[in-house]
Amino acid sequence: MRAIYATDLSAASEAAIENETCLECLQRIGVETIHLVTVVPSNVHAGMPGMDLEGRRERGLRQYANVMENAGFDVETHVVRGTPHRRINGIAETVRADLTIVGSRGQSPLENRVIGSTARNLARSTVVPLLVNRIERAEDEPEVLHEHLFQRVLYATDFSENAERAFDAFSYLRHATQEATLVHVRSPKDQGAEDPEDRLADLASTLEDWDIETETRVRQGDPADEILAVEDEVTPTTTLVGSRGRSRLRRLMLGSVSEEIVARADGNVYLVPPPRTA
Fold first, then answer.
1. For the chain, give me the number of helices (H) and strands (E)?
2. Which CATH number fits the domain 2-135, given the four candidates 3.40.50.261, 1.20.120.530, 3.40.50.620, 3.40.50.10470?
3. In the chain, domain spans
4. SUPFAM superfamilies of this UniProt entry (predicted)?
């Protein structure tokens, strides 16, 4: 597997990249090659006084690359200029990446937590599965909030094609997953359909065959609120959800359940979008 690791070379990014447990989790799910990417904003020019951003970022990436190479990964570095989420998505498509990883400061003091603009825009537009890796908000020496990325997974499903695609990610996540909680939030569409308890039980059986300890939850209410309530109860290391894709309307509007989860979850989020189009 090939992963894009997007970094702004901040202390938070350094904490994530130098965490050996996180890197081991990536190896467990099959990641062999990592493309380290940092983006120089297009409004910052090399000719500005005191600016050598490309050179500084190349040196910073080289340090991160050494850490990852020592951990056993093949590493390529990319310093590019432009709009971060567009350039990250572009590189992901070019190298045929299997996932993108981006750090995000967690647990904002604001009542309604918001994530950084790059993580938010990637959640709306990513072309490959996106791991939003939560970093604590400490100013000096931040640490990742959950070292074992996929050890305990909360999987949210509405039984749609998007959700089924996300569940398929367990085919490789299972190598790093020990426990899973499967949650469905009832909606009017459930009327006349197969009992969601039975459908969750079928999914749970698949995971238990892979020696993943699994429990199921059926909730009632606002989907995002209920999924986040379960996250608070079971404290997963990562919440796994599907995304509906990259329409122009979605890029202009917030509010989908998956974007709510990415923005408000306390822990890591693994977002699985529709497959690439040719």
1. 11, 10
2. 3.40.50.620
3. 2-135, 152-271
4. Adenine nucleotide alpha hydrolases-like
Whether residue 169 has pLDDT greater than 60: yes
Half-sphere exposure of 114 (CA within 13 A, CB side): 7
8 A C-beta contact, residue 220 and residue 140 = no
Write down the pTM of the prediction.
0.85
Query: How many angstroms from the chain centroid is the CA of residue 1?
Result: 16
Helix/strand/coil percentages in the chain, nearest 5 = 40, 25, 35
Fold classification of 152-271 (topology level): Rossmann fold (3.40.50)
* 189: DSSP letter: G
Phi, psi of 141 (to 5 degrees): -130, 75
Length of the chain in residues, anyone? 278
Q: Hey, what amino acid is at 80? A: V
List Cα–Cα distances, 245 to 119, 123, 135, 172, 217, in angstroms: 15, 9, 26, 22, 26
Cα separation values, 170 from 126, 151, 166, 266, Å = 19, 12, 8, 21
